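Hi support team,

I'm filing this because I wasn't sure whether my run with pyridoxal-5'-phosphate finished correctly. The job status page said complete, but I'd like someone to confirm that the output block is well-formed before I use it downstream. Pasting the exact inputs I used:
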Amino acid sequence: MKLLDKTSSAFLYQQIIAFIENQQKTGALSPGDKLPSLRKLSGQFEISVPTVKQAYIELERQGRVCARPQSGYYLTAQQARTLKPRPAKWSSCAPATVKCRSMIEQVHEAMHMPDTIALGISNPVQANPPDKALARLMRSVLSRVAEKAVSYGPVNGDAKLRLQLACRYQDQAVAVNPDEIVMTNGAQEALSIALQCVAKRGDVIAVESPCFFGIIELIETLGMQALEVYTCTEDGVCVERLSQALAQHPIKACVFSTAINNPLGSMNTDSQRQAIVTLLEQHNIPLIEDDVYSELYFGDKKPKPAQLYSTKGLVMTCSSFSKTAAPGYRLGWLLPGKYEEKAKRVKRALSCSTPMLQQWTLNEYIQSGDYDRHLSVLRKKLIYNCERMRAFIADHFPPEVCISKPHGGSVLWVRCQSHVNTSEFFHEALEQGVSFAPGVIFSPSGKYGNYMRISFGVQWSTQVEEALKTLGKLVCIHTQQQLGKEEGL
Ligand SMILES: Cc1ncc(COP(=O)(O)O)c(C=O)c1O
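And here is everything the job wrote out:
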């Protein structure tokens, strides 16, 4: 390898930057790749480690690389156009009676279509499936439990697993009594129980805008109304807008994901989360925190649970193992706050108990330490996929398209030009073997028609790249067609 020119007027660290740029140009380094270690480059070029570090810090300052604690420096998707927070003129909403649209059904169906690259469903576990380890544990559990495997379990679930969960909250300074936890059939059932504890038909429920379509469907099923609250692309629910909404509407409860929203990937800071909880408790309004993604954070530490800031017991946390280990196990839980008694009653009425075999298996998985080791690998793979997919979309979609820069999770929120209707080419995409989630399903009032949600919870492959190219072509064609129509061509 050519050594650096120590007589040149360019500083050595600048030459290192030029070297990295060249590696990128020649394709030796791609977005998401790890840069050579400081020690390696220092040895290769016979320069000091601090000089290489200076180059990396400068690249980081320019947003071209990102440092990951205890891992190293990674190339970011420099060319991706990041979605900016929406302008202040975002029109506020009135509570809307939700109408379940068939598009949600179609997005779900597409998940099971053969020969389709499913970029429409958020399934982060696919990036690093722990199926073999879990299957081994389940076989071992099954060989020990005999007839108990086919019996009813306690209404609030397996005591050992609840204890494990309580300890995990304890690690984050949240005092949770294991007896109050209610194990549920996925987070979706936890959300349903929580809503039924605090609201009834016709009540207004505040949700983030955009928000996960499962919440919208649930609100519809329960006959409640949804009120969208402005949510910033990167920073999550806006406390000021929430305060305004509280003054204007009879909000009965809020369902938010302040620690990683789906589809934005936004995250409120811990202090904002505290401000939200304090504000809501001042108004005696329960917060149902949909917390399924908080283990999949991309920063250096896990966001603090909303429960930590509750003083009145009005925060109810819903979570599950669906995004971290096994969506098919349908295993979630609810921290019911002060609604413990009612939550257990609703759980009994809804489904009596949660399958035990899955709970015993997950308990052993956590106890062995394998769950945390798996999470650490999963997070790394998702960060890598995220950068790669942002770069790929930037390269293969029209230049006006903007892409979210998520703080975690497994989806990108992609904005096409305002005249594009992404639902219009959903079926064309399916015919060409790729699914995505059209933006309109993330809003009870039908906003976001020109957005699409694309999942990076995948095993990266050439098929995924081809699927993204297909979507890029469809966006190009529809952008042009629509422009043509508007110009009367
Ligand atoms: C934000 C959010 N909440 C809840 C759920 C439902 O989770 P579960 O599969 O555990 O019911 C999902 C699943 O996609 C989700 O994205």
